[in-house]
Amino acid sequence: xxxxxxxxxxxxxxxxxxIFDVPEGTLTDVLDASVxxxxxxxxxxxxxxxxxxxxxxxxxxxxxxGLKALGVTHGDRVALVLPNCPQHIIAFYAVLRLGxxxxxHNPLYTDRELRHQFEDHGAKLAIxxxxxxxxxxxxxxxxxxxxxxxxxxxxxxxVSRRLALTLPLRRAREARAAxxxxxxxxxxxxxxxxxxxxxxxxxxxxxxxxAATDTAVLQYTSGTTGVPKGAILTHRxxxxxxxxxxxxxxxxxxxxxxxxxxxxxxxxxGLTLCLTFAxxxxxxxxxxxxxxxxxxxxxxxxxxxxxxxxxxxxxDRLAAGAAERxxxxxxxxxxxxxxxxxxxxxxxxxxxxxxxxxxxxxxLTETSPIVAGNPIGPTRRPGTVGVPFPxxxxxxxxxxxxxxxxxxxxxxxLLIRGPQVFQGYWRRPDETQAVLLDDGWCRTGxxxxxxxxxxxxxxDRIKELIITGGFNVAPSEVERxxxxxxxxxxxxxxxxxxxxxxxxxxxxxxxxxxxxxxxEALRSHCRSALAAYKVPRTIVQAQDLPxxxxxxxxxxxxxxxxxxxxxxxxxxxxxx
Length: 576
Hints:
The chain is of the alpha/beta class. The chain folds into three domains: 1-25 and 242-463, ANL, N-terminal domain (Rossmann fold); 27-210, Rossmann fold, CATH 3.40.50; 466-571, GMP Synthetase, Chain A, domain 3, CATH 3.30.300.30. It is built from 17 helices and 26 strands. The strands form six sheets. Strands 7-6-5-3-4-8-9 form a seven-stranded mixed β-sheet, sandwiched between helices. The protein has a five-stranded mixed β-sheet with strand order 12-13-14-15-16, with helices on both faces. Helix 1 (27-37) runs antiparallel to helix 2 (53-69), helix 2 crosses helix 3 (86-97) and helix 12 packs across helix 13 (344-354). The longest helix has 17 residues, at 53-69. It starts with 26 loop residues before the first helix and ends in an 11-residue tail after the last helix. Keywords: Ligase. This is Long-chain fatty acid--CoA ligase. GO terms for molecular function: ligase activity, forming carbon-sulfur bonds. It comes from Arthrobacter echini.
């Protein structure tokens, strides 16, 4: 144990290794090991329908063979546009088994947001929720995708639930319409039903396998500049981070844990803690296509969760829902919160309801994503994001001169070095060079302070990204949408903290002469171009905006002015 180089090791919980070696192999090797060790154990559960590890391994081998028949080869990008469902897990590992690259997408993105990503990565095949397939079919001819594999979520549900959705009742019809569609699936691109992939014989064992250094995933992020781009994550990056997560929780019982996937797996946080970490420990992964308190509490009756990664609002809502219904959450021993600050009140309420630990972690897409966490034990420190994970080095530096370290206790930009650090941004060498420094250090764009015991506190973000509901929102993207409205001549977008954690997206606009502020009209305009969570919660009118000498909007001054003046009630929209 090198306390001189990594003094935070002294704060680790008992049982957490102070020396960390990245496991050998790839993500597909890890899944194969779990299939071999836990063959008869339930791997996936979806609305009560279960899939064993043996069945999962067989489905992955068949889907990989089906993708190979469709022309997928080593190094190809394959787009996944899926909510949490068994097909998502199978598709993810099937793509990787061929040495191809998974590109994750949010199925709730607008057409424009999806199109930007497809233009950037150039995938020729997409595996998509059938409700999204018509939107891919409508892409113009210059988008590279030629084949769309359409996934019907209902087919993964138990027979009783599928039958209930066919009843001639309005509620059943509405529920079915929200889950699947047959309208608009035809178009210029080849359409293949998901079930057709699974009709192939298993992929032969002699099929070449990927290498640990091969790219496994392109995970889109706004990064440090606000422009969405694909972070290149290798098998080794993701395997290392899953192993770091496993090492951080020494009380885990491999083959016996039940992990709830309430986080979307197209998000870096959900991808690592559900798609890779849970599968690596032979856990039962209970899948939810969206978070719903009732669905989670109902599922807990059959399969009590033991490990719950989530964000603070989910913990608050589950604790309140359990108290209202008299439901028991005491099976949950471990809960790890991320993506936004964790209020101490949430910790107190959750731990009173469960008797287990709720700790806060920190990460970013560029680090696969987890960098640090509070120890699971008495040395944890609420209000901080904890200490660096095993095998991770950190520095606190001058943001304007990242080769200059700050003195202990001073604030500065956090730099990260470790096996989880990404390889750069897809086809963006200049932006990669700005973030990845010499000797493997990665700039986070986050201003932090490290106390005497080396616990990290997030102070501010250089990159000015807004974190709402656990998702990153780039202010520049929202500003562009507002500026496309005829009434808006200037706009600045910032994040303002909510009392319950996270931030609201707040816009300040300058209107054209003679125009009147119509908050709902502007929000409606934004909804046509942005995902719902990016639409401003509040829109305020101003006569002008503060700018630097070179004309750049000074968002920090905008934010400070809003905090000083308060928000007018008439400028607030709803939370949809």
